[in-house]
Specification:
This protein is α/β, with parallel strands linked by helices. The protein is 34% helix and 24% strand. α3 links the parallel β3 and β4.
């Protein structure tokens, strides 16, 4: 870390406005408030898998590591993600979440191929029947 300040993690979350409060709740429950860099991109982990966004996303990981000494990258995805075509693009909730989890694993491998010491994990924020995100998360 080259700067005089640092943080524990980088949260790479989807940019969807519907999940902002749930992302904050997740960070608070994980003991990360005031101790993480926040990067918001459509589809979160998907940005590392797309040729047109991969380089810019990896640059954010690199800068967060270099400037703030992060030890972990946490993907925060959510049900009904528009970058994936929304829930309607899948056969069901189980299929949707499994797809996000597979992409998180692939994105984690991409990060760890460049930064092997970084821990990478992910969560999927759960949408309730009313279409709200109350902070409940499924770990991947």
């Amino acid at each position: 870390m080259s700067g005089s300040h640092g943080c524990k993690a980088m949260i790479l979350t989807c940019m969807d406005f519907r999940i902002q409060e749930a992302v904050s709740s997740f960070a608070r429950e994980a003991g990360l408030m005031g101790n993480y860099d926040l990067v918001s991109l459509a589809g979160a982990q998907r940005a590392l898998l797309q040729p047109d966004t991969r380089e810019a996303t990896m640059l954010q990981v690199s800068l967060s590591r270099e400037l703030h000494g992060i030890q972990e990258v946490i993907f925060v995805s959510h049900d009904d993600c528009g970058a994936y075509g929304g829930s309607k693009a899948f056969e069901g909730l189980e299929s949707e979440r499994a797809h996000y989890a597979r992409d998180m694993k692939e994105a984690a491998l991409a990060i760890q191929s460049v930064f092997p010491t970084l821990k990478v994990s992910g969560v999927i924020l759960v949408m309730d029947e009313a279409g709200n995100f109350a902070g409940k998360a499924v770990m991947t």
